[in-house]
């Protein structure tokens, strides 16, 4: 027998399973965390991938913009690496007065002054100008071309008019674009609303009524139309440099990648896949997945990463058990409101009329739950919401397993356990034919 302690909110749930039923326990790979952030940042900036060192890329007298993620990516810990980027620019003859930080809001809300400080640090806010790029403010954007798929590319004029553009951000698995970071600083980061909508629409199936695109998903780059469209947009801008971070499973800096906006980012994607991509020989009949506890299961929106990864490990005729406490089940409203539609067809139609990432996540959750039964161990008060999301709520792991066995309808079955499913992505070696 094997015993597991699985996170559920701020507590753990004990689970004991027969060894013969367990086909795999999926965990991220250990990776040496960066201990000297200053030295590692300088090393990346001075020995970049695919381009000369940053000091040779910029020249005195040039205006430089840094594109940085907003508060929804606060886990990047910008305040710990941005000062070294500024110092390197200073050493190249670019004073702080000639540097601006563009907050890549996309369509997210504006930051407050206090939030700028909390995300980027007091030193950065004191030293350089902060500009917020907010997609709905159409007059802030200018045309720079059109992609081969017909999407007009309008980017923030402060970025387009700069002499040098430096992308910053973090690389993680992304359920739409394959991987985050890199070109996502540009789209949706500093793009106009119509440009974002045009690009993100490639996550949906080409045929209305067919749901989401089969080529859009975690770790998927080749053939991913959204990603390929983003690459074209980035190529139109031709950013001069990139500095991206990769974190380990504990949220520590694992690697800094710097250099060419595409080549350096691709190297960072390899490291992300090395840490969080876990090869599996086959999918399981039953997948038991915990997000890893609070805050990764604070609501269903955050828990969606766990659901997506759990489904990747499950056979089409299998069942998934999800441990998601969801103490703030109704948050955020721009996600939870999508479950008020009568059916998935209406949800999809509304999404095609006005694309939002929360709407896409809600649609994907509904489609996954329609395909494979989802049993959610959660708080009793979440019952109505979980049912509205197309899932079956229970309050104990014992109840969940009994219900899963009933749904499977067979006594012989294999289990995959995912103790930190919010982070780990199963990679099937040989897909089922």
Automatic annotation (TrEMBL):
Gene3D superfamilies: 3.40.50.11440, 3.90.226.30
Domain of life, source organism: Bacteria
GO terms of molecular function: lactate racemase activity
Domain LarA-like N-terminal intervals: 8-206
Lactate racemase C-terminal domain boundaries: 282-421
This protein's name: Nickel-dependent lactate racemase
């Amino acid at each position: 027998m094997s015993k597991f302690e699985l996170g559920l909110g701020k507590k753990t749930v004990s689970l004991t399973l027969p060894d013969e039923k367990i086909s795999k326990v999926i965990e991220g790979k250990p990776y040496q965390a960066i201990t000297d952030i200053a030295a590692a940042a300088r090393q990346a900036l001075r020995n970049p991938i695919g381009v000369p060192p940053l000091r040779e890329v910029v020249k005195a007298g040039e205006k430089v913009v840094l594109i940085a993620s907003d508060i929804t990516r606060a886990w990047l810990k910008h305040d710990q690496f941005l000062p070294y980027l500024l110092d390197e620019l200073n050493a190249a003859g670019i004073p702080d007065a000639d540097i601006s930080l563009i907050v890549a809001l996309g369509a997210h809300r504006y930051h407050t002054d206090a939030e700028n400080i909390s995300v980027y640090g007091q030193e950065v806010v004191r030293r350089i100008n902060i500009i917020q790029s907010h997609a709905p403010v159409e007059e802030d954007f200018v045309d720079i071309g059109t992609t081969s798929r017909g999407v007009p590319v309008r980017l923030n004029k402060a970025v387009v008019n700069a002499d040098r553009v430096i992308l910053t951000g973090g690389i993680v698995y992304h359920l739409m674009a394959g991987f985050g970071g890199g070109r996502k600083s540009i789209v949706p980061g500093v793009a106009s609303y119509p440009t974002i909508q045009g690009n993100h629409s490639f996550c949906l199936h080409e045929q209305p009524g067919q749901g989401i695109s089969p080529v859009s998903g975690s770790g998927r780059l080749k053939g991913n139309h959204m990603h390929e469209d983003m690459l074209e947009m980035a190529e139109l801008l031709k950013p001069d440099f990139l500095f991206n971070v990769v974190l380990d499973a504990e949220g520590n800096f694992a690697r800094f990648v710097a250099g060419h906006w595409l080549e350096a980012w691709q190297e960072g994607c390899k490291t992300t896949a090395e840490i969080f991509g876990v090869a599996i020989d086959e999918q399981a009949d039953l997948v038991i997945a915990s997000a890893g506890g609070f805050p990764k299961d604070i609501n269903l929106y955050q828990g969606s990463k766990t659901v997506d990864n759990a489904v990747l490990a499950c056979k089409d005729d299998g069942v998934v058990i999800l441990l998601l406490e969801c103490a703030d089940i109704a948050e955020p409203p721009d996600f939870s409101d999508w479950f008020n539609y009568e059916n998935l067809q209406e949800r999809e139609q509304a999404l095609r009329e006005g694309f939002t990432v929360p709407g896409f996540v809600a649609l994907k959750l509904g489609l996954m739950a329609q395909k494979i039964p989802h049993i959610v161990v959660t708080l009793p008060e979440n019952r109505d919401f979980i049912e509205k999301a197309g899932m079956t709520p229970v309050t104990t792991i014992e109840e969940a397993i009994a219900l899963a066995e009933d749904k499977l309808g067979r006594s012989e079955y294999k289990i995959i356990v995912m103790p930190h499913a919010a982070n780990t992505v199963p990679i099937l070696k040989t897909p089922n034919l």
